[in-house]
Here is the input.
Amino acid sequence: MSTEALRAALAKCPLIAILRGISPAEAPAIGEVLVEAGFIILEVPLNSPRPFESIARLAKAHPIHMIGAGTVMTTADVDRVAEAGGKLIVMPHADLDIVRHARARNLICLPGIATPSEGFAALKAGAHGLKLFPGEMLTPPVLKAMRAVFPKDTLMLPVGGVSDRTLPAYWEAGADGFGIGSSLFKPDMSMADIAKRAKILTSAARLLKR
Here is the structure.
């Protein structure tokens, strides 16, 4: 898959749903709620219960959407995501071996970076975009400063502490998308609560203009 595929998905909805702690049994119903709200990209962190099964169920139910994995730590994880039908690899760090392997498997890869050195190395290895992590540390002014030195077409997505209230400041600073975790989903949330949060977030995203 190409950077343009990721760019097109983010153009439809710039939010990545991070479903840390989701179980395979609840994955189909939660996926349906999120897709109905407008989410295009769904990420199952690999420290969730039986994550590859959840990825497989979501990928089967939503074949035109971008389903993938977060907290990917090894190249073997990349292979299992591909076998489950996933299209996306997201990492908390910038392991260049994982970036290269994801590219070799034709998967979109978003490594986590916190410095320009990490970011440029990840792009050179083939990263399709950069996950700015943790977002609580990489504030909108930091993102704006990074924008001044990275290629203009570099996709940058803050992750960590992002909510509907913080979207506009990051967007103004040059964000292309956002990873949304606990402000959207926690394992103990009701389906109604998840649906409510999803609608709030996607409504806030639709107001972002550039």
Q: What stands out?
A: Residues 3-205 form a domain with the TIM Barrel fold (CATH 3.20.20.70). Residues 191-206 form the longest helix (16 residues).
